[in-house]
Design brief:
75% of the residues lie in helices and 0% in strands. The protein has one domain. With 377 residues, the chain is mainly α. The radius of gyration is 20 Å and the shape is globular. The longest helix has 28 residues.
């Protein structure tokens, strides 16, 4: 299903849907210094534990991989559309993403995914013309490497809950402070981010990039057939089993759980994609596809907007609600943010062609220093 400007509505709708999972997973990192490494001792009721467990099962690792898959898929579409101009434009695009990511993780939130996308996107750009068999070999090699590192971590790593609890309490206090205190906490998390996100999860993201590239080359999202049903029937039970093991093992506190989740989360993410495709491609679901697609078209603005909103809600620079919301309240807040962003995206695109962040990326990529704001239709 194509929009009037030639964009694939299905791809944009999937990207819009992924925004929901991303805010559900990311919001606790802003709302509580304890994150998923250890439960916030303030909220330890049965309801709190159930909500945490469900988010680990159904959301954690799944939606970032879905976004990564779509990055690889769109990479091929842009390559076909842009011709010889693709390479310099993509280098500029990746540079802007990297800068956005640095700004995001220093000034807005602890940790970021845009810098990881920029770094591993650069690797993908260098390997843009690899054959399908080579891509499959790299995907397999990536998961073998992840499995090996995960197995080694399982054998040697231990978790000090007392130290983690103390670290969480310190993080919450710093986030509740002023500008210097908040920036200090964001900077404190950078070494951990560079090791875990940029490297290990970055490899998983790169594998998802390559899966998206292969899917785009075979036009997987441009039509529904027996493959879509196979993906759902295989991905749901295997992906859920992995998610249940990951959550029950302790989430990010368990190297074994992380390993199992990294290996099985792509299956559940693929099942999500297949299910959304089925819905938005049906007669009754086309309206939902159009609504989600508009949010997906502004995915970069919405992602950065989520960081701005959580900065205002939870740090001392705004309402200072860090550590005050239960896991259920966080879930409701995340859904409210997502619904608001979908509504605003649909209103925005009635008047403007690009979102604020997308306009800036487009300006740099097209090398047009004189593009006027606002970017009217």
């Amino acid at each position: 299903m194509l929009a009037r400007d030639g964009r694939l509505v299905t791809v944009d709708a999937l990207r819009g849907f992924a925004l929901l999972g991303i805010i559900i997973v990311n919001l606790p990192y802003a709302a509580s210094g304890y994150n998923y490494a250890v439960a916030d001792p303030t909220f330890v009721s049965v309801q709190d534990e159930v909500v945490r467990w469900l988010i680990l099962v159904f959301c954690t690792m799944k939606f970032n991989l879905l976004f990564s898959f779509l990055f690889g898929y769109s990479f091929v579409l842009q390559q076909a559309r842009s011709g010889p101009a693709f390479v310099p434009r993509m280098w500029r695009r990746l540079g802007v993403l990297f800068i956005f990511g640095i700004i995001n993780m220093i000034f807005l939130v602890t940790g970021d995914i845009l810098t990881t996308y920029a770094v591993w996107g650069a690797v993908l750009l260098v390997l843009r013309d690899i054959g399908n068999r080579t891509a499959v070999a790299l995907i397999l090699a990536s998961y073998i490497l992840i499995a090996g590192v995960g197995l080694a971590a399982t054998l040697i790593e231990t978790t000090d809950d007392a130290d983690t609890l103390d670290r969480g309490a310190t993080a919450a206090r710093k986030l509740a402070g002023g500008v210097g205190s908040v920036l200090s906490e964001h900077l404190t998390g950078l070494p951990l981010y560079s090791r875990s996100e940029l490297v290990m999860r970055g490899i998983a993201i790169f594998a998802a990039f390559l899966i998206g590239v292969l899917a785009a080359r075979h036009r997987l999202l441009e039509g529904l057939d027996r493959r879509e049903r196979i993906i759902r029937w295989a991905g749901i039970p295997l992906g859920l089993a992995g998610g249940i093991f990951y959550a029950s093992a302790g989430g990010d506190t368990s190297p074994t759980g992380i390993l199992v989740s990294v290996l099985t989360a792509p299956l559940l993410a693929a099942a999500y994609a297949a299910g959304v495709m089925r819905i938005v491609s049906s007669g009754r679901g086309r309206w939902l596809g159009s609504v989600l697609a508009r949010a997906g078209r502004l995915s970069l603005s919405n992602y950065l907007g989520q960081s701005l909103i959580t900065l205002f809600l939870f740090t001392g620079l705004g309402l200072g609600l860090v550590g005050r919301l239960s896991p259920f309240a966080m879930l409701v807040t995340a859904m409210a943010i997502f619904i608001s962003q979908v509504a605003i995206s649909n209103i925005w695109l009635r008047k403007f062609r690009y979102g604020p962040a997308e306009w800036l990326v487009h300006r740099v990529v097209q090398n047009r220093g004189s593009m006027a704001w606002p970017p009217s239709r």
